Write a sequence for this structure.
C-alpha cells in the first residue's frame, strides 16, 4: 500500500534522447529467468530524480528513488509471472539539471526456463599474498538472501590463518560436496551423503593435497589436480599478478575407500582442471607441455622467466566406471601450437553436448588475465566459438553451467578490472549464449562499494544445510590421512 | 562558590586538551588516516555484522573528526565529560569525592595515548571511540534503569552505596586493569607504547614526514629531517627513505649523505614488530613511480590491517596513474562519501574526465620522470620495500630521464653496490662530458673505482681537487686511527664531525642497515 502511494509518476514534459540510459548493473536487452529476484539498478546520468516505467504483458509499474530503481519483490514476482516467455519494456526518465530526459527504452526478456535457486562463491579480497577474512557464501537467486556456508574467521587466529577454497558439489546437490582448508586446521572437508569428514589428501607419493576438484556424476569418486603453485608480481603490466604451477598432476580420490591414486603424472606435462562428462565416462582436463631447460636455476625461477611460454591444451581421457581405469588420452583442442593460446577451466554442459572453457594468451590463472574470454566447443562438431555475448574487454573466467544447461555463469572483471563479479547468461536450445548480466543485488551500488571478489561461482539446486558451526567444529579436528593406492 | 566537581572536570579537560591536540595532533591525524568510514548500506552492514555492531560503526564515524585534531578531541572530551557527570549522578558521589568519577575518563585518555606504533596495526574499527562509547552506553542504560531498579528490593543497593565503597570500586577497576595487563604480559609493552606516543621523536617525525610526502610538500620533509639532525638523534630507515624521496623530487639527491642517511630500526615496543611496508610502503612506492607495487602494498595493508582512508587514497592514485579509470572511480566514489577526504576525491575525479588538468597536476608532473621506465618484470619485494627499491634501481641498465639517471647512481651508492655504481657512473660521465660531476658521485667514484668488483677502471677520470684532497685526508686520518688500534665504532665517532657528510664515512662506518 505504501509503495503504491509513493509510486513515482512518469514525467510528461521529458525531452526524448536517442540513446539508451546509462544504468548499473547493465540490464539492457538481457534475458533473465522468470524466477530471479528483482533487477534493481542505478541510473548513472547525474540525475536528481529518476523514474523507470516497466511495461509488461497486462500492466505497467513505475519505480524510482533518487538515482536508483528499486523494485518491490512481491510486485516483481507478479511481473515475472505475467512476462514468462515475453519481455518487459523499460522506459527510463531522469531529471538532470532540473529538466527531465526520456531515454530510448530497452527490453528485458523473460525466459521460460527457470534457474537453479542457489549459487555459491568464495568472497575474498583480490589480494596478493595476504588474506584475512574469507568465506564461502550461498545466495538465493530468487531473493536477496545470502548466508555463509563457512567462514575462516570461525577458526582463524592471529597466528594461524586459514585459507579456504575450491567448493564443489556433486550433480549440483549439496549432500555430496567439498571444500579445502589450507594452513591453519588444513584438510579437505568432504560431505558424503550428508556425512561430514575432514581428509588429508596429501600422500608421500603425490605432489600436493588435492586442489581443483571434480566429482564423478555417478560414483563416489573425485578427480583432483595436485599442484605446486607460486606467485610473482608484474612491475608494470596491468595484469599485476602471475600465478603459475611449476608442477601439476591429476589424482583420483575414492571417497568410500579413502584412497588416492594417480591419474596422470607425465614429465614435462602440467595437467590440471579435471572435469567429468555427465555420463561419467570421460574425463576432460587441461595440460601444458613445458620442458625445463636450465638445471642451474630453480624451477620457480625458470617458470617466472618463461611464463609466457606456458600454454594449456584441452584433453580427454576415457574412463571405465567399473574398473576405474583411464585410457585413450587425446588432445581435443590444440590451443597452444595452432592459436598461441592457453585453455583452462573446462566444464561440460549437463547434456554432454558442449564444453565451456576460459582462454587467454598464456598461463593457467585467467582471473588475472585481462584478455581471458569464455569459449565453447561443440563436442559433436568439435567447432570452437568465442561467446561474444558473455565476454567483455576484461577478464572472464571460471565458466559453469546450471543444472538445466540453460544458464551459464562466469566470473567477470568487466566492471572495474579488479573485482570479480558473478555474471549469468541465458543459453538457449539452439546453442546460442545471450547477453550476460550481473547477479542482482538489493542495492544496485553494492558492487561499487564492496571491495571483495566473488570467486568460483557454482550453481546448486538446494542450499547447504550443514551449519557454519558444524563445519568449524569439524575443522578443529585432525584430518584423516588418505591412503595411497597404486593404479 | 564553584563546586569542586566543576574545578576537577575543568582541570581534566585542560590536561586532556594538552595531551591530545596540543601535544599529539600528528598522532590523532594519523589515527584518522588509518581509519575508514564510508557512508552507505554496504559499509554499514559489513561493520555492524562483522566487526562490533553499531558501536564500531559510530566509532568509525566519529574517528573521522580527528582529521582536525581539535575537533575530534573536543568530541571525545565532551563524551568523557558526559561519562564523568553520569558517574557522579548514578552513584550520587559527593562533591569532595568527585575525583573518583574521573578515574574512568582518565583511563580512557591513557588508553588512546597508549597505542604508539599500534595505530598502524590496530584492527578494531574506530578504536579511539569504541571504549568510550561502550562505557557511555552502559552508564546511560544504568541511569535509565536506576529508577526502575530502585523500586525493587534488590535495586536499593545502588542508593545505599557509600563513598568509601565507591573508592573501593574505583581502586578495583584500576587493579583489574593493571592485573589483566600483567596477566597477558603486555603491561610493559603498553607502558612503552604510551611513552612512544609521548616522547619518541622519530615516531612523530615519521608521521609528519608521511603527511608532508602525501601532500607533496617535499621541503617540509627535508626540514623535518634537518630538525632530527639538530636533535642529534639517529633517524629510522623510514625517515631516511622519506628524506631521500624528498631530495629526489627537489633535485637534491646529491645531499643524500649530507643529511643523515644512517637509518635505524624504530623503538616500537616489545609487543610489536613494525615494517616499513606497513608504515609507509604504498606511498614510498608511489613516490618512486612503482605503481603496481603501490597498489599491492595498499591492498595488502587493507586486507591485513583493515581498509583505511590512507589505503583508499593510494589505491585510487595507483589506478589513476595506471589509467584504470573505472577502478579509480570506484575508490574515489567511496572517498567522496567521507567528511574530510571528499574534496581530495572530487579533485581527482575531475582528472579522470580532464586529462589536461591531470597531466599538468603537481602530482603527475613530479612522478612523470619516474614513469618512463617501461620494462615489465615479474618479481616480488618479499615485504621489504627499501631493499627492493635499492636493488631495483641499482640494477636498472637504462635511465631515460635525468631524474632516473641520478636515482640509479644514488641507489647504487646507498646500497654500496660498487659494480652497479661504476657502470652508472661511467654512463653518467660519458653522457655529461662538459658538466661538472656532482661531488657525491665523485666521492663514490674515488672510493669504489678501485674496488675489487668494479667492472670499469675509473682512475682515468679527472676528479675535483678539493674532493680528491679531502679523500686523501680521510684515508690518512683513518689510517692514523687504525694504527692506534681503536674500535671501528669509536673511529666512526671520531671521524664523523669531519667526514660525516661524505659517502666515505657512510661506506666505512654505517654497517647496521637492518631491514624491517
Amino acid at each position: 500500500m505504501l509503495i503504491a502511494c509513493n509510486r513515482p509518476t512518469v514525467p510528461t514534459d521529458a525531452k526524448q534522447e536517442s540513446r539508451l540510459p546509462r544504468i548499473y548493473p547493465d540490464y539492457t536487452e538481457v534475458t533473465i529467468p522468470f524466477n530471479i529476484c528483482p533487477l534493481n539498478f542505478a541510473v548513472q546520468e547525474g540525475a536528481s530524480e529518476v523514474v523507470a516505467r516497466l511495461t509488461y504483458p497486462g500492466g505497467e509499474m513505475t519505480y524510482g528513488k533518487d538515482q536508483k530503481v528499486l523494485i518491490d519483490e512481491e510486485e516483481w514476482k507478479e511481473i515475472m509471472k505475467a512476462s514468462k516467455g515475453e519481455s518487459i519494456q523499460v522506459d527510463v526518465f531522469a531529471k538532470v539539471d532540473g529538466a527531465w530526459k526520456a531515454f530510448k527504452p530497452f527490453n528485458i526478456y523473460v525466459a521460460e526456463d527457470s534457474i537453479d535457486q542457489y549459487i555459491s562463491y568464495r568472497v575474498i579480497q583480490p589480494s596478493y599474498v595476504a588474506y584475512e577474512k574469507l568465506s564461502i557464501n550461498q545466495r538465493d537467486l530468487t531473493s536477496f538472501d545470502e548466508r555463509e556456508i563457512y567462514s575462516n574467521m570461525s577458526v582463524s587466529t592471529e597466528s594461524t590463518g586459514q585459507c579456504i577454497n575450491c567448493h564443489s558439489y556433486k550433480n549440483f546437490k549439496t549432500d555430496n560436496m567439498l571444500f579445502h582448508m589450507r594452513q591453519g586446521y588444513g584438510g579437505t572437508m568432504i560431505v558424503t551423503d550428508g556425512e561430514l569428514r575432514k581428509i588429508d589428501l596429501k600422500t608421500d607419493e603425490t605432489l600436493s593435497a588435492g586442489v581443483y576438484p571434480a566429482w564423478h556424476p555417478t560414483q563416489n569418486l573425485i578427480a583432483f589436480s595436485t599442484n605446486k603453485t607460486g606467485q610473482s608480481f608484474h612491475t608494470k603490466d596491468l595484469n599485476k599478478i602471475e600465478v603459475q604451477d611449476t608442477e601439476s598432476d591429476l589424482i583420483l580420490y575414492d571417497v568410500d575407500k579413502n584412497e588416492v591414486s594417480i591419474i596422470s603424472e607425465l614429465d614435462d606435462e602440467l595437467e590440471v582442471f579435471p572435469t567429468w562428462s555427465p555420463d561419467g565416462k570421460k574425463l576432460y582436463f587441461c595440460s601444458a607441455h613445458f620442458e625445463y631447460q636450465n638445471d642451474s636455476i630453480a624451477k620457480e625461477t625458470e617458470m617466472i622467466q618463461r611464463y609466457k611460454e606456458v600454454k594449456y591444451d584441452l584433453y580427454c581421457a576415457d574412463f571405465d566406471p567399473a574398473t576405474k581405469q583411464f585410457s585413450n588420452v587425446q588432445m581435443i583442442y590444440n590451443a597452444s601450437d595452432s592459436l598461441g593460446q592457453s585453455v583452462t577451466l573446462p566444464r561440460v554442459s549437463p547434456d554432454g553436448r558442449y564444453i565451456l572453457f576460459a582462454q587467454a594468451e598464456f598461463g593457467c590463472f585467467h582471473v588475472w588475465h585481462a584478455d581471458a574470454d569464455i569459449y565453447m566447443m561443440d563436442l559433436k562438431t568439435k567447432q570452437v566459438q568465442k561467446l561474444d555475448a558473455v565476454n567483455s574487454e576484461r577478464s572472464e573466467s571460471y565458466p559453469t553451467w546450471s543444472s538445466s544447461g540453460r544458464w551459464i555463469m562466469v566470473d567477470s572483471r568487466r566492471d572495474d578490472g579488479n573485482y570479480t563479479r558473478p555474471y549469468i547468461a541465458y543459453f538457449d536450445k539452439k546453442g546460442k549464449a545471450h547477453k550476460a548480466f550481473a547477479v542482482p543485488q538489493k542495492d544496485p551500488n553494492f558492487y561499487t562499494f564492496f571491495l571483495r571478489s566473488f570467486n568460483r561461482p557454482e550453481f546448486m539446486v538446494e542450499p547447504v544445510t550443514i551449519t557454519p558451526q558444524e563445519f568449524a567444529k569439524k575443522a578443529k579436528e585432525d584430518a584423516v590421512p588418505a591412503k595411497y593406492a597404486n593404479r | 562558590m564553584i563546586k569542586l566537581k566543576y574545578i576537577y572536570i575543568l582541570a581534566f579537560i585542560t590536561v586532556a586538551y594538552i595531551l591530545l591536540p596540543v601535544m599529539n595532533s600528528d598522532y590523532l591525524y594519523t589515527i584518522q588516516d588509518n581509519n575508514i568510514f564510508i557512508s552507505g548500506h554496504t559499509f554499514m552492514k559489513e561493520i555492524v555484522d562483522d566487526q562490533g555492531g553499531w558501536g564500531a560503526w559510530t566509532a568509525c564515524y566519529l574517528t573521522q573528526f580527528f582529521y582536525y585534531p581539535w575537533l575530534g578531541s573536543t568530541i571525545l572530551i565532551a563524551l568523557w565529560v558526559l561519562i564523568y557527570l553520569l558517574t557522579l549522578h548514578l552513584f550520587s558521589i559527593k562533591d569532595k569525592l568527585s575525583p573518583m568519577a574521573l578515574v574512568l575518563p582518565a583511563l580512557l585518555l591513557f588508553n588512546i595515548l597508549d597505542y604508539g606504533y599500534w595505530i598502524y596495526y590496530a584492527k578494531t574499527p574506530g578504536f579511539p571511540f569504541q571504549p568510550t562509547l561502550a562505557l557511555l552506553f552502559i552508564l546511560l542504560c544504568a541511569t535509565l534503569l536506576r529508577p526502575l531498579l530502585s523500586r525493587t528490593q534488590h535495586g536499593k543497593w545502588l542508593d545505599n552505596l557509600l563513598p568509601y565503597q565507591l573508592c573501593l570500586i574505583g581502586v578495583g577497576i584500576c587493579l583489574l586493569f593493571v592485573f589483566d595487563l600483567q596477566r597477558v604480559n603486555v603491561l610493559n609493552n603498553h607502558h612503552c607504547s604510551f611513552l612512544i606516543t609521548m616522547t619518541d621523536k622519530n615516531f612523530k617525525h615519521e608521521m609528519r614526514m608521511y603527511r608532508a610526502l602525501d601532500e607533496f610538500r617535499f621541503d617540509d620533509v627535508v626540514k623535518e629531517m634537518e630538525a632530527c639532525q639538530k636533535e642529534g638523534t639517529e633517524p629510522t630507515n623510514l625517515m631516511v627513505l622519506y628524506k631521500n624521496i624528498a631530495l629526489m623530487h627537489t633535485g637534491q639527491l646529491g645531499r643524500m649523505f649530507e643529511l643523515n642517511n644512517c637509518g635505524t630500526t624504530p623503538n616500537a615496543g616489545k609487543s610489536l614488530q613494525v615494517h616499513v611496508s606497513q608504515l609507509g610502503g604504498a606511498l614510498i612506492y608511489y613516490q618512486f613511480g612503482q605503481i603496481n607495487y603501490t597498489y599491492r602494498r595498499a591492498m595488502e595493508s587493507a586486507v591485513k590491517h583493515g581498509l583505511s582512508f590512507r589505503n583508499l587514497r593510494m589505491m585510487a592514485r595507483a589506478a589513476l596513474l595506471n589509467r584504470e579509470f573505472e577502478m579509480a572511480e570506484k575508490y574515489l566514489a567511496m572517498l567522496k562519501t567521507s567528511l574530510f577526504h571528499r574534496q581530495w576525491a572530487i579533485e581527482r575525479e575531475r582528472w579522470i574526465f580532464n586529462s589536461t588538468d591531470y597531466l599538468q597536476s603537481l602530482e603527475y608532473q613530479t612522478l612523470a620522470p619516474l614513469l618512463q621506465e617501461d620494462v615489465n618484470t615479474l618479481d616480488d619485494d618479499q615485504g621489504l620495500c627499501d631493499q627492493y627499491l635499492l636493488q631495483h634501481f641499482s640494477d636498472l641498465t637504462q635511465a631515460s630521464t635525468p631524474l632516473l639517471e641520478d636515482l640509479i647512481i644514488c641507489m647504487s651508492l646507498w646500497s654500496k653496490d660498487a659494480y652497479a655504481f661504476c657502470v652508472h657512473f661511467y654512463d653518467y660521465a660519458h653522457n655529461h662530458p662538459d658538466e661538472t660531476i656532482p661531488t657525491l658521485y665523485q666521492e663514490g667514484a674515488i672510493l669504489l673505482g678501485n674496488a675489487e668488483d668494479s667492472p670499469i677502471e675509473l682512475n682515468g677520470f679527472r676528479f675535483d681537487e678539493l674532493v680528491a684532497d679531502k679523500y686523501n685526508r680521510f684515508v690518512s686520518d683513518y689510517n692514523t686511527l687504525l694504527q692506534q688500534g681503536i674500535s671501528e665504532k669509536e673511529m666512526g665517532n671520531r671521524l664523523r664531525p669531519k667526514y660525516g657528510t661524505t659517502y666515505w664515512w657512510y661506506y666505512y662506518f654505517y654497517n647496521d642497515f637492518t631491514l624491517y
Notes: Chain B has three domains: 4-197, 202-366, 385-509. Chain B is about 65% helix and 0% strand. The CA atoms of residues 6 and 339 of chain B lie 34 Å apart. Residues 4-197 of chain B form one domain.
